[in-house]
């Protein structure tokens, strides 16, 4: 992805404030509202809790190079790693998920169709145009979008599907994820854009295909990690290869812990699949 909005991502960097021995980790500002408390909850008793300060991605990588930070968590829309003697691995993803009422017969949709559904002047207004059958052929769609400053579902959707087309004037904007899911559960003609894979009662996610020649994929943790699901933004852990093994292990054990995964999910960020997290935790233990 080369869309300009990704350039606005500021990133956090942990800098020693209380203790010179505290781990110094860099993390996206999208995690600002919960990462501090998540780090405290995820850090084993008797272990120094990482500390945080904000800076851009370039300064974060520069801090790693200069040895002023131990680990950075950075958004990588094109998954091209920064130059330098770094090791890295995926940590989590922000996703844009297309949700419908569970009575809807449509199972999948393409990116170009989504542009016609959500875009101003779009040609798709009835469910029959995307595979709806029976009484659904002529049923008109109601479009909803979750729009919040701390999540990027809408920006991801614009970058991958909209081709700079504005949203329909009739789009209903909401700011609370669970509230929107409840609304969809009561509107069987709804199609909504949300930032979570955790569905509520009577709602489900559509599979999405990149184009007419591609297979559609669900937003499962495995499909998102592999990259088969298209509406995703990866966050990577990056650290210097010469970082002390004990410190590296300490930080990775915190970042890939169950407590951290739960905190990510609760804040509309998708963690790695459990199997992948356990493998990385095992590697962190072996590296001590």
Draw up the topology in text.
Blueprint lengths: L9 E4 L11 E4 L6 H8 L10 E4 H9 L5 E5 L10 E10 L1 E5 L6 E3 H8 L23 E5 L6 H10 L9 E3 L2 H9 L4 E5 L8 E3 L1 E3 L11 H6 L5 E9 L4 H11 L2 H9 L3 E2 L2 H13 L2
Parallel strand pairs: 2-4, 7-12, 8-9, 8-10
Antiparallel strand pairs: 1-2, 1-3, 4-13, 5-13, 5-14, 6-10, 6-11
* Biggest pleated-sheet summary: 7 strands, mixed
Strand order of the largest sheet: 3-1-2-4-13-5-14
If you average the pLDDT, what whole number results?
88
Low-confidence stretches: 1-19
The CATH architecture of the largest domain: 3-Layer(aba) Sandwich
Query: What proportion of the residues form beta strands (DSSP E)?
Result: 15-25%
The CATH superfamily of the largest domain is known as Periplasmic binding protein-like II
The helix-and-strand class reads alpha/beta
Percent helix range = 25-40%
Number of strands: 14
CATH class of the largest domain, anyone? Alpha Beta
Q: What is the rounded Rg?
A: 20 Å
Order of helices and strands: EEHEHEEEEHEHEHEEEHEHHEH
CATH topology of the largest domain: D-Maltodextrin-Binding Protein, domain 2
For the record, the count of structural domains works out to: 2
Continuous helix count: 9
Shape: elongated
What's the end-to-end separation, in Å?
A: 37 Å
């Amino acid at each position: 992805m080369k869309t300009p909005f990704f350039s606005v991502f500021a990133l956090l960097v942990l800098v020693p404030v209380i203790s010179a021995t505290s781990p110094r980790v860099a993390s996206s500002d999208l995690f600002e509202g919960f990462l501090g408390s998540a780090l405290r909850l995820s850090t084993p008793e008797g272990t120094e809790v990482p500390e945080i300060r904000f800076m851009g991605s370039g300064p974060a990588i520069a801090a790693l190079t200069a040895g002023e930070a131990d680990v950075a968590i950075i958004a990588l829309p094109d998954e091209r790693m920064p130059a330098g003697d770094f090791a890295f691995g995926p940590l989590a993803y922000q996703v844009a998920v297309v949700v419908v009422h569970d009575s809807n017969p449509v199972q999948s949709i393409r990116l170009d169709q989504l542009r016609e559904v959500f875009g101003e002047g779009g040609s798709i207004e009835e469910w029959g145009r995307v595979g709806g059958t029976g009484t659904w052929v002529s049923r008109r769609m109601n479009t909803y979008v979750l729009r919040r400053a701390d999540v990027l579902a809408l920006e991801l959707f614009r970058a991958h599907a909209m081709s700079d087309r504005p949203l329909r004037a009739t789009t209903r904007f909401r700011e609370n994820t669970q509230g929107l899911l409840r609304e969809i559960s009561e509107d069987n003609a709804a199609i909504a854009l949300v930032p979570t894979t955790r569905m509520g009662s009577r709602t489900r996610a559509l599979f999405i295909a990149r184009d007419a020649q591609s297979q559609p994929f669900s937003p499962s943790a495995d499909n998102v990690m592999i990259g088969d699901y298209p509406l995703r933004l990866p966050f990577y852990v990056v650290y210097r290869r010469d970082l002390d093994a004990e410190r590296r292990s300490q930080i990775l054990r915190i970042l890939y812990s169950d407590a951290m995964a739960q905190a990510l999910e609760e804040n509309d960020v998708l963690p790695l699949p459990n199997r992948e997290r356990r493998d990385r935790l095992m590697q962190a233990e072996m590296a001590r």
